[in-house]
Hints:
Elements: E1 2-7, H1 10-19, E2 27-32, E3 42-43, H2 51-60, E4 65-68, H3 71-75, H4 78-84, E5 89-90, H5 98-101, H6 103-112, E6 120-124, H7 128-137, E7 142-146, E8 155-158, H8 161-172, E9 183-188, E10 193-202, E11 206-208, E12 213-214, E13 217-219, E14 223-226, E15 231-234, H9 241-261, E16 267-277, E17 280-287, H10 295-298, H11 306-314, E18 329-337, E19 362-365, E20 368-371, E21 374-377, E22 381-390, H12 394-406
Parallel strand pairs: 1-2, 1-4, 2-3, 4-5
Antiparallel strand pairs: 6-9, 7-8, 7-9, 10-11, 10-16, 12-15, 13-14, 15-18, 16-17, 18-22, 19-22, 20-21
The structure holds glycine.
Glycine is lined by residues 214, 229, 287, 291-292, 294.
Amino acid sequence: MKILIIGSGGREHALAWKISQSPMVKKIFCAPGNAGISQLAEIVPIKLEKKEQLLKFALENSIDLTVVGPEQPLNDGIVDLFLEKNLKIFGPTQAAARLESSKVFAKEFMKKYKIPTANYRTFNRNQKFDAERYINETPVPIVIKVDGLASGKGVLICESKEIAIAELDNIFVHQKFGEAGSSIVIEDYMVGEELSVFTIVDGENFLILPPAHDYKKILDGDKGKNTGGMGSYSPVPYVDEDLMNKIKRNIIKPTISGMIKEGSPFRGCLYFGLMVTETGPRVVEYNSRFGDPETQVVLPLIENDLVEIMLASIENRLNQIKLKVKDDEASVCVVLSSHGYPDDYEVGKKIFGLEKKFQDILIFHAGTKFDNGDVITSGGRVLGVTSSGRKEKFQQTVSNVYAAVEQITFDGAYYRSDIGKNVYFK
Ligand code: GLY
């Protein structure tokens, strides 16, 4: 098979790595890819937003399966476009991708199908005064979410009512988020443990992949600004069968059956961003694609051929697949980022140490490119250093990752030093 992967981050590098292990795969292309992905795939210089060009490429090169990494092309309807031409593509249609691309849709959907989530109200630009009144009635912290996609920056946790009202002005008056901010959700702040659960769905049937923890904050101890994710591990020790059954019964099943009732069955990877609260698991958000950097730790734990799973998702036959997970293993990923990230950062720094032979280490590239034979930084998140090993030796796996991280350098390289620390499996 010839496979086309769309995207250019650590998630797409992990997907390319796993897909390259399939005996069915003859060649992988990746658009637009990065320096690391180019070791596994032929790089195609087409940008994410050029869906017609991506379609043309797939048709001209007889691509057998296209895999979409990021949310933007899904929201732009790339799956619908490819399906019209009878091309196989892994991911949800534009209508199904609304679970991620419209926070208002997602919240109203959860209310309709009684899926546990935070209490909320929605407002549009014409309802600014109602939104202010609601803020004044709601206990702090207050969470404001812009309706549309905002590259991970559209969720604002406001510690005071004054901050919430100032953010409201930024969104509705100064239009900081453009059209994505034409409607908002204001919701209660949930307290608990954040948990990422990926499912692969074929419209009706689903597989649940091992749960993962994502470190969203830039600083050790979960302090500082939100990022795309500074590290991850999988599975998560406290998630037992009982909790997983609750998640399945109260959240996963009603979401999948609800989307069928809405006339938009979901196919692809449906990612449940959860908060495990005192009163049980609740949905923080849905994502219509694999998460980053959770994919980097989840895929190494899967024994199945990922291409077979993706084809079964497209062809509505996931009930024929038995998921095989490396139950006695756990994995961890530490992200190296550019100085300044998640605010402004410099790129173009030469990366040293990538050629070293590290034992049991996978280095997934996120923001890298080639420059005259050197690998240089080209993004906020640069690399995801990953390893897996036996669960009972997890702290050794963590030390192994950090030993590798210390030997990979570039000007301004930053990483958290507490990823996977204090995580123990019985
Ligand atoms: N790790 C969070 C995300 O992929 O959105």
